[in-house]
Write a sequence for this structure.
């Protein structure tokens, strides 16, 4: 089956620093990857849609200069949280779609970010 | 705008049957998904409906009525491991973007 990995699985950083999270599709090429954020006991909130070779599309209310997304290849997308603050502490999950017209997305295991 | 509604919490007994409802209002419709999510883990895919009717997969079934903007997930022969959140999600148009509901936390009692 399709496997999506994320690295790191958890990270603790100090306020003001930047953190990079990687999302990889291991056994398929992902034309599109999605980044979600989930706060405790809440649902997944789509942050942005990442397309290989083009700029990401951000959802309303998501700061593109704060959450930098790079989809450099068909198997890798990265999310960089710049100048992190404690309110950025959350569970970040990526998902990958093999192409258009697919029936499902495949989710990575998530990255728990804690900003102190 | 887009809106997906599902109950916040439900409780059921081991071995029983439970139905989790989901209603949606979206700009366009291109499929409805159900995902299971255990605490601290990523969602796992359960089902996908794009046409009206019932899709059965083992102990889980999912139903869709596009005219009513309504779906349900039916879980049979409940097991303790079914205690999780169940997320209803809709793809509103053909850009592959999926919008999630807030999820239903299902508690299974022995």
């Amino acid at each position: 089956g399709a496997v999506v990995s994320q690295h790191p699985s958890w990270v603790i950083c100090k306020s003001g620093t930047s953190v990079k999270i990687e999302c990889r599709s291991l056994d398929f090429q992902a034309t599109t990857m999605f980044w979600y954020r989930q706060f405790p006991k809440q649902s997944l909130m789509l942050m942005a849609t990442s397309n290989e070779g083009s700029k990401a599309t951000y959802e309303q209310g998501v700061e593109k200069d704060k959450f930098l997304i790079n989809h450099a290849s068909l198997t890798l997308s990265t999310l960089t949280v710049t100048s992190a603050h404690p309110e950025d502490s959350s569970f970040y999950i990526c998902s990958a779609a093999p192409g258009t017209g697919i029936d499902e997305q495949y989710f990575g295991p998530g990255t728990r970010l804690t900003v102190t | 705008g887009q809106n997906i509604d599902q109950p916040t919490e439900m409780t059921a007994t081991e071995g029983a049957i439970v139905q989790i409802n989901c209603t949606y209002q979206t700009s366009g419709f291109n499929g409805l998904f159900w995902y299971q999510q255990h605490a601290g883990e990523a969602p796992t895919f359960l089902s996908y409906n794009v046409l009206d009717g019932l899709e059965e997969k083992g102990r889980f079934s999912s139903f869709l009525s596009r005219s009513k903007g309504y779906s349900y997930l039916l879980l049979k022969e409940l097991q303790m491991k079914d205690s999780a959140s169940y997320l209803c999600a809709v793809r509103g148009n053909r850009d592959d973007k999926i919008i999630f509901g807030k999820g239903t936390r299902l508690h299974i009692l022995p």
